[in-house]
């Protein structure tokens, strides 16, 4: 389990994690997982595709402070069978596994040349999302 290293600059005037930092941390976690499955910037540039977000929503449950030991569990919640649309869930958990925040991101893949949703998605995307960690209640939609 890798705990997040929070910075002083991540705090708001109430000395807890600033709301926008949750989104930044979730995005970094998501990108790291995608990279581990071959969906990286080099591949995206070569094959002219990239992720596009339709919705990003956070439910804040408990404060996170500078000294908090927090880790993020990132899993696929839903996905179309062709991997053209997906929902990724990020749980911000304490070392006692108490939920501090829940982010859900809905997205797809865009053809960066046509500036339209990529159909079909590149093979690397399909294979990577098939291997992506999934929630216990994951379902194809």
Unreliable stretches: none
Instruction: Identify the CATH architecture.
Output: Roll
Radius of gyration: 16 Å
Q: Decide which structural class fits the backbone.
A: alpha+beta
Q: Give the overall form.
A: elongated
| CATH fold name | Thiol Ester Dehydrase, Chain A
Molecular structure report:
The protein has a single domain, classed as Thiol Ester Dehydrase, Chain A. β2 and β3 form a beta hairpin. It is elongated. It is built from three helices and six strands; from the N terminus they run ααβββββαβ. Strands 1, 2, 3, 4, 5 and 6 form a six-stranded mixed beta sheet that branches. With 141 residues, the chain is an alpha+beta fold.
């Amino acid at each position: 389990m890798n705990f997040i290293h929070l910075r002083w600059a991540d705090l708001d005037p109430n000395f807890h994690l600033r709301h926008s930092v949750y989104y930044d941390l979730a995005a970094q976690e998501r990108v790291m997982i995608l990279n581990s499955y071959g969906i990286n910037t080099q591949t995206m540039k070569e094959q002219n595709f990239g992720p596009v977000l339709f919705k990003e929503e956070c439910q804040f449950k408990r404060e996170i402070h500078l000294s908090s030991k927090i880790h993020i569990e990132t899993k696929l919640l839903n996905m179309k069978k062709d991997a053209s649309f997906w929902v990724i869930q990020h749980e911000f958990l304490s070392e006692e596994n108490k939920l501090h925040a829940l982010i859900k991101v809905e997205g797809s893949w865009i053809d960066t040349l046509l500036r339209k949703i990529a159909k079909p998605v590149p093979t690397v995307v399909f294979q990577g999302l098939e291997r992506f960690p999934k929630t216990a209640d994951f379902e194809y939609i």
